[in-house]
Amino acid sequence: MLSAKHAALAIKILSLSLIAALSFFAVTAKLPESGFVRDSLESIEASSDTVMKLSAATLSASLAVSALPDDFATPLADSLADMNLYFIAILVALFLEKILIRYGIHAAFAALIPLACLVGALSVVTRRSLLKSLAIRLCVLALAAAFVVPCSTRISGVVASDLTAYVNDTIEETEGGAGKLQEAMEGGAEDKSVFEKLSDLFQTAIRDISDLMLHFQNTIRKCMNSIAILILTNCLMPLLTFFVLKWILRELFQIAIPLPPAGERRGAVPESGSGADSELMSMGGRRP
């Protein structure tokens, strides 16, 4: 018959084995198909579409501005075209987030969590605190990596809804400005100048090239603000969420690597007569 000590060890090992089995067989099959994960994938797809629309709008605006007479609009056209470097970087980040959702969750619950349970079982058997700390760290890393993107998309959807509306307005305004400029350059009444046509299309007074450049300078400013919003919501927010989740999980698990006492770390061995000596000194005696 097992003693109480051995029975407690067996219960701990069986519990860790059960957690590993549930993680490998149940969670890996159910969690990727859950609505929580599907909503995150749909949010990433929507963000990718937004980035592509803004990229197409800036390219069309760049082509439209470059068609203006003289070289006044060349710097503006180049600025609009150079923005696509930022869009590529944001799309790469979104693609990595999509990979992390599709494969990271499976890897976390099919490999990292069972590995953490195995290390935890070894720590129970060997009573090594270092193995216990390693098991908890593996568990924290797996949970943080699995839920960082779904949580960040939910947070972005709640916090950055107004910012997303600003990006959509910028896309519409950029596309509309490029379309009106192309329309003025291609057709319209022959007895009107380009600037008169643009004044009619933009419903504002455009007397010369400087007025038109001011309009597209404002467009560039809004596009740069939109790029900053996209970087914040799609690149920085997942990183911030990862570190916050990691900190919360670490605090919940109370991870700490125990160290030996200071005397043992220095290799000091207490003398056998220390207790007698202290008693003798307290009585006012002296060593012979």
Q: Can you describe this structure?
A:
This protein has one domain (12-254). The protein is built from ten helices and no strands. The two termini are 58 Å apart. Helices cover 82% and strands 0% of the residues. With 288 residues, it is an all-alpha fold. It is rod-shaped.
What class do helices, strands and sheet pairing give? mainly alpha
Topology order in helix (H) and strand (E) letters? HHHHHHHHHH
Question: What is the number of helices?
Answer: 10
Question: How is the biggest beta sheet arranged?
Answer: none
Radius of gyration: 32 Å
Share of helical residues:
over 70%
User: In what range is the share of β-strand residues?
Assistant: under 5%
Mean pLDDT: 78
- Distance linking N and C termini: 58 Å
| Shape descriptor | rod-shaped
How many β-strand runs? 0
Low-confidence runs of at least 5 consecutive residues: 255-260, 268-285
Number of domains: 1
List keywords for this structure.
288 residues, mainly alpha, 10 helices, 82% helix, 0% strand
Please render the helix and strand layout as text.
Blueprint lengths: L3 H27 L4 H32 L7 H9 L1 H43 L2 H31 L1 H26 L7 H9 L6 H45 L8 H4 L8 H9 L6
Explain briefly what this protein structure is.
This protein is an all-alpha fold. It has helices at residues 4-30, 35-66, 74-82, 84-126, 129-159, 161-186, 194-202, 209-253, 262-265, 274-282. It has ten helices and no strands.
